[in-house]
Amino acid sequence: MRSLDSWRPRRTRTLAGAAALALAAPVLAACGSDGPGGGGGDALEVWVYQDGATVIQEDLVERFNESSDIDINLTQVPGENYQDRMRTAMGSPNAPDIFFNWGGGSISDFVAEDMLVDLTDVLADDEEFRDAFLPTILDAGAVDGRYYGIPMRGVQPVILFYNQTLFDEAGVQPPETLDDLFSLVETFQERDITPSVLAGADPWTELMWLEYLLDRQGSSAIFDRIRNGDSSAWGEPAVLEALENAVALVDAGAFGNDFRSVGYTTDGASTFFAQGEAAMHLMGSWEYGNQLTNQPEFAENDLAWAPFPTIEGGSGDPSAVVGNPTNYWSVNSNVEGERLDAAIEFLKMNGSEEYAQDLIDNGDIPATTNAEDLIASSPNPEYAAFQWDLISNASFFTLSWDQALPAAQAAPLIDAIEQLFSGQLSPQEFVETAQAL
């Protein structure tokens, strides 16, 4: 088993607000290395989100610099308000040449302003490069059907985690349908156990339920229309049905009575779950690493996982998943000539088997097609195989709504979700609010 430090959770969700453009330039931690090019004015400035996984990007940059005439200077940007800081820099003389992002809405404003290199033709002209990545992951980061980002970290699907011991004691199985889920709510309430912990103090956790409920009810095509600018899709009957199902789960006691005071970033929800107070937890794949780090006995003896259930009569494909498909590298459109050629070569290294193995060794599942051959060497092959099957068989991978939508829409949408789960907005009022965005 790999050391627990390697499983430290690495994901922080941030929302860029309108005030981002007024922020001062951030203090950044630089981590460069001199290679044949010796740095200098031709060096490529690369920004990455600073967390426990950046050691992988450090190694990648070191390998690149050993063979390239143009160096890369890697800058680790502190995770807090990363998007705000990145937005402040773009368009300024301090803008990075290559930078970490979430694809979709997180870069759509830059695309609209022609600030990014369109990589569509690069992928089309190099089939080996294109085919190195899972198509659903590439597509999830696209903007208007064009590719402006290359996958650079592991996949992050949202998974229904559950306590195997509590399920065994109750004589039940993980839910296959929404009706099964409601039945489990009754079963665990009778046993004085919260059916599913929900960190309502961090409303992006509530978003996960809506994402899956809509996906299963009306298919991923509905939100795909929304993220492509069709606000009328919020008025689809499946949206209202998904919202009503979410409210029905709240009213049925699926999340207990005090979920709005439970946080995730403070580890409250995960601890509550690990202590046997809740039977289920819908959370991103990083939850396993979080539990293995903080509650290793629970992670090794009780923690189990399953796909989100289907909805009988729904038109969604049960193989579809939601979450953060991965993170992406994008290239500033100011990068030209030999520097652009070097940037493309750096991007291609992210599809290599060597880089995929680095991700596997760190407990991640790469967004590359060769991952299946490598997962046996993962610190937890069983969990790795489950994730691989989930994402490789997915008909569609919906990017988290708050990352897929432009910042001006994402922040008020999260507010509306919080109001829906707290009873301040009815499902119909939510639809009207979303359409007005």
UniProtKB/TrEMBL annotation:
The keyword Signal applies. The keyword Signal applies. PROSITE patterns: PROKAR_LIPOPROTEIN. InterPro entries: Bact_solute-bd_prot1 (IPR050490), SBP (IPR006059). Residues 1-29 form the signal peptide. Gene3D superfamilies: Periplasmic binding protein-like II. Keywords: Signal. PANTHER family: ARABINOSE-BINDING PROTEIN-RELATED, BLR3389 PROTEIN. This is Sugar-binding protein. It comes from Streptomyces marincola. The lineage of its organism: Bacteria, Bacillati, Actinomycetota, Actinomycetes, Kitasatosporales.
